[in-house]
Amino acid sequence: MDFNTFFFGAIIILSLVIFFYIGKFRASEKQRNRDDRISWQNNRFGFLKLLIWVMVSVLSIALLARMFVFTPKTTVPTHGGEGGIRTLEGL
Q1: What secondary structure does DSSP assign to 18-86, as a single string?
Q2: CB 57 within 8 Å of CB 65
Q3: CB 73 within 8 A of CB 89
Q4: For residues 52, 54, 57 and 60, what is the CA-based torsion angle, rounded to 10 degrees?
Q5: Residue 5 CA: distances (Å) to CA of 1, 13, 14, 15
Q6: 41-81: per-residue pLDDT in tens?
Q7: pLDDT at position 27, please?
Q8: Is the dihedral of CA 54, 55, 60, 62 positive or negative?
Q9: In the chain, what is the straight-line distance between the N-terminal and C-terminal CA atoms, in Å?
Q10: For residue 87, what pLDDT band results from cuts at 50, 70 and 90?
Q11: What are the pLDDT digits (tens) for 1-20?
């Protein structure tokens, strides 16, 4: 194992220790019992709107991945009497 493995492993362990240490503290009574709390009982978006948002998000991520990650193979015209297009892999 190299130095990067130990360094980033130590950062992960340290951040988890800090997260769980701070996580055991509870918010004060004034913060928990307020008059203007969000009501989680009513659904603001509805199932159909949520489904549409998920579909649009997945589609946009797939299109971005296709544009930047999965680029098509570049083609060049052939020289000579073969006729047609050859990919760069055949050169």
Answers
A1: HHHHHHTPPPPHHHHS-TT----SS-SS-HHHHHHHHHHHHHHHHHHHHHHTSPPPPEEE--SSS-SEE
A2: no
A3: yes
A4: -60
A5: 6, 12, 14, 15
A6: 777 768 888 899 999 999 999 999 888 876 666 665 555 55
A7: 87
A8: positive
A9: 40
A10: low
A11: 789 999 999 999 999 999 99
The pair of structure tokens assigned to 46 is: 């509805």
Considering only residues 82 and 62, tell me which one the structure prediction assigns the higher pLDDT.
Answer: 62
Exposure string of 5-32, with b = 16+ CB inside 10 Å and e = fewer, is eeeeeeeeeeeeeeeeeeeeeeeeeeee
Q: How far apart are CA 26 and CA 33, in angstroms?
A: 13
Question: Tokens 């549409």 identify what position?
Answer: 52
Rounded-to-integer distance, Cα 27 and Cα 35, Å = 16
State residue 73's pLDDT score.
63
